[in-house]
Structures are given as structure tokens and as C-alpha cells.
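Contributing: when you submit paired examples, paste them exactly as shown. First protein:
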Amino acid sequence: MEQAATANAFDVTLRGLGAFPTPTRPRVIWAGTAPSPAFAALGRAVDRAMTALGFPPETRAFAPHVTLGRVREPRRDPALAAALEAAAARPFGRLTVGRVSLMRSDLSPRGARYTELRGWPLPPAALSDVVDIDAPDGDS
């Protein structure tokens, strides 16, 4: 995992809300991110590091997101589905990705408990590496 932490820190725009597995029957509510080459590269590096440790490669597409919460009793909720749909493309701000953490998730009837097993800080980006990810063509 340490080799995944060689990427520089980067900023990403939070954009859109959604739910896993679906907005009509959510278990996890999340905020998505705008497309980010830096985030995609970090995802590939984490996958390579985990594969080198003996874990099978991930078959699902990388979907960077921020988990906002879990639904205790998943059921159809038309009002929640409508709210998620209304915010599907809404920007929510920016955050700096400055650390890679290996997390353990323990699910219980009382909710999820997350424990960081190990963390690695990402070095700050050089000014020449900073790009405006909101620009349509990726240029600053």
C-alpha cells in the first residue's frame, strides 16, 4: 500500500449525491466527485498495491465518493430518491485528498464502525502539478 501513497496530494470537487445499490432502495448515501485524473491514478495505484499483497484485482469500475451515511433499514423511500435525483449533478465544494488510509469496516445492528489500520500522508503537490479540475479541458 505504501507505493500507492507516492502520488501527490490533490484537490477534488464533490459533485452529486447518490446511493448504493440504487437511489430507490439505498443502503449507503454518498457524494460523488467530479472526474479527476489524479483520483483515477490513485485508484489504480491502490488496486496494484492490493493485488501485490495477494488480493484479487477489483472488477468493478473505480467510483470515488465520500460516504455520507448508511441507511439502517433499507426500504423504498420515494422522497429520498427524489432528493438524491435532484442533487445528482449539484456541486458541493472541494476537498483535498492528502492521505491514503487502509480501513476496516465492522458492520453491526447498531451501525458501522470504521477503524484506520494504517495511513500514509500524500506529499503536497508542486505548484506546477496543480490543475483546475473544473476546467472543461482539464487546463488551468
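Second protein:
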Amino acid sequence: MSSSETSRAFTSVQRGRIAFPSLGHDIEGRVASVGAVVGSGLRTAPVYLTLEGPRTALRPGVYGRVEIQTANAAVTLPTSAVLIKDGMDPVVYVQQDPLTYQRRSVVIAQPVEGRVQVMSGLQPGDKVVVRGALLLDGSADQLL
């Protein structure tokens, strides 16, 4: 695989700030997880935050505005880079050296418009095979 057929992976810790007009102050937190189901209407997905700092009296039905801070963009790959084998965990192939590739399980979000976000399983600087991955694993059932 040439370098043009790989994609570098990187990670970031995502923090958030929630502004509640009714409380009069903001609450800091970090992203705990992102829901796997994307709504078809507005193409939205639930994001779950773990709140930090002193406990605040939040009530059900209170509206707030969330700002998620990211230093880097999310890791996304073309769906052609992700393989499904025996109905099990999705896998990608990571380049170890010019002639060696390692199979690695990943946790992914719901595919959107031909791309999929990788939630975990890749390290900063990993080169992922994005074209021809099915040729490396002939026993894979399907591409994502």
C-alpha cells in the first residue's frame, strides 16, 4: 500500500461547557460518549457529558447550550477501511512497516455519508489502510 492509501489517526480529549441561563453560570464537563444512532431529520446524535466541579441543582427539563471544545478533528475513515469478520468486532489494518500490516479491532460510530468515526482502537500516528483492506484479509465477510 502506498502512503496515499493510508490515513493518519490522532486522538483528542473533548471537553465541554454547558451554559444554563436559568442557573446563571456555566458547568464544565468532558465528553463521556457519543450515541451510535444518528437521527435522520437533522442528522443529530446524543452526546453524553460527565459534569465536573461542585454539584449544581439541575432539574429535569432544564435547557442548556453546550459548547464542545476540540483541539483536533475527530478521527474518521472511509467505510472501505473497516472490515467485519464473522459478524464480530470491526477491524482495520495498521501499517507497521512498508510490507507489514497489523489487524486491529476498533470501536466505531454509525457511518455517515461514506465515512465512519473511530472512537477507540487507534493510536496517534497510526497509518491505516483505507483502500484494499479486503485484499489483506480474504476471510473477512464484508466491508462496513
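If you have annotations for the second protein, write them as plain sentences, like these:
The chain is about 5% helix and 40% strand.
Residues 3-11+74-143 form a domain with the conserved putative lor/sdh protein from methanococcus maripaludis s2 fold fold (CATH 2.40.420.20).
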